[in-house]
């Protein structure tokens, strides 16, 4: 059985930003040989990741992982890899648009290559400890090949055919964003009423309104006024935009998703230069 199972030892990692820079060193620690590439970011040599200046040698790796801003950039990198006749299994861990992923999948499969989507949830803190939730789309037999590799970075759950991971990721972040806005409205209102934030947090986190924003983000990033969660607002707007378009097209009713999308994209305009997503609280406060 082992004989037919492709062994993964050399891994390319494209995109060494907030997430890629902490995910890729975990693979080194787990015993993989990891080669990184980024157009801007530089990863510290002590991470064990060998950063290369071009993608030219990326055809030689067993697997190549993408942790990039969006589908358009993933597609550009894939085009480059196809030009250099890659034989690698390709894994898009970015939060991409599921319908773009399906299109890109047709191109990749036409070359006889394997392609999976495996986006993540958990943010920079859970990326650092290898505790991400990884949602995988594609062929289950292809996922088997890279399951050990992905498991280094978190818990892997099969979602469905190619694009399903990206679809669930966008829908998850829409639910998370709706909770974020509701929690910000509630905190700002409680404060105006004269309630101490500490009391607000203790009570809501012991009650039914608790969610990831109240449990993880409010105290650390908002009440503290640090606003440094590591997840940029423009990325959240991208996720909610993908989800909103899916909901509009595939669901018969969408009472909330356009409001959430509009509020976040307006906030992004108001907040200016590359705000953290928790800075939306500054907009709510006014
Ligand atoms: P980031 O902007 O910090 O990192 C992206 C990196 O990609 C940057 O370093 C950039 O220079 C690089 N890049 C851009 N174009 C490139 C190209 N053509 N070739 C090589 N590198 C290129 O973003 P991030 O926060 O690390 O997010 C990466 C992906 O993960 C996004 O799709 C995001 O939505 C998703 N995500 C982020 C978080 C988070 O908490 N930050 C959580 C879950 C998912």
Structure, described:
- This protein has 286 residues and is α/β, with parallel strands linked by helices.
- Helices cover 50% and strands 13% of the residues.
- The protein has eleven helices and nine strands.
- β4, α2 (71-83) and β5 form a beta-alpha-beta unit.
- α6 (164-193) packs across α9 (233-250) and α7 runs antiparallel to α8.
- The protein starts with 9 loop residues before the first strand and ends with a helix.
- The model has no long low-confidence stretch (mean pLDDT 96).
- It binds nicotinamide-adenine-dinucleotide.
- The site of nicotinamide-adenine-dinucleotide has 27 residues, from α2, β7 and α4.
- Nicotinamide-adenine-dinucleotide is lined by residues 14-20, 37-41, 67-69, 73, 76-77, 94-95, 120-121, 123-124, 230-231, 235.
C-alpha termini separation: 63 Å
Unreliable runs: none
* Strand order of the biggest β-sheet: 3-2-1-4-5-6
Number of strands: 9
Percentage of β-strand residues:
5-15%
* Whole-angstrom Rg: 20 Å
Bound molecules: nicotinamide-adenine-dinucleotide
Helix content: 40-55%
- The global form is globular
Mean pLDDT: 96
Total of helices: 11
Order of helices and strands: EHEEEHEHEEHEHEHHHHHH
What kind of sheet is the major sheet? 6 strands, parallel
Structural class: alpha/beta
């Amino acid at each position: 059985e082992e004989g037919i199972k492709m062994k993964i030892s050399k891994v390319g990692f494209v995109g060494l930003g907030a997430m890629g820079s902490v995910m890729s060193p975990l693979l080194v620690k787990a015993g993989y040989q990891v080669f990184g590439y980024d157009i801007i970011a530089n990863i510290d040599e002590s991470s064990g990741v060998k950063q290369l200046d071009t993608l030219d040698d990326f055809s030689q790796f067993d697997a190549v992982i993408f942790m990039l801003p969006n589908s358009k950039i993933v597609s550009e990198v894939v085009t480059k890899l196809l030009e250099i006749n890659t034989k690698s299994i390709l894994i898009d861990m970015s939060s991409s648009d599921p319908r773009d992923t399906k299109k890109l999948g047709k191109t990749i499969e036409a070359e006889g290559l394997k392609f999976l989507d495996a986006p993540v949830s958990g943010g920079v803190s859970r990326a650092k400890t290898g505790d991400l939730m990884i949602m995988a789309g594609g062929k289950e037999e292809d996922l088997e090949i890279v399951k050990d590799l992905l498991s280094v970075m978190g818990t892997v759950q099969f979602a469905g055919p190619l694009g399903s991971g990206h679809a669930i990721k966008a829908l998850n972040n829409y639910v998370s964003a709706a909770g974020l806005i509701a929690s910000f409205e509630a905190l700002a209102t409680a404060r105006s009423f004269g309630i101490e934030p500490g009391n607000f947090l203790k009570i809501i986190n012991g009650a039914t309104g608790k969610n990831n924003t109240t449990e993880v983000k409010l105290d650390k990033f908002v009440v503290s006024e640090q606003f440094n969660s590591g997840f940029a607002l423009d990325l959240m707007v991208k996720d909610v935009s993908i989800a909103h378009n899916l909901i509009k097209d595939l669901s018969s009713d969408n009472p909330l998703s356009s409001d959430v999308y509009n509020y976040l994209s307006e906030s992004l305009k108001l907040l200016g230069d590359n705000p953290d997503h928790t800075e939306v609280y500054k907009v709510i406060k006014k």
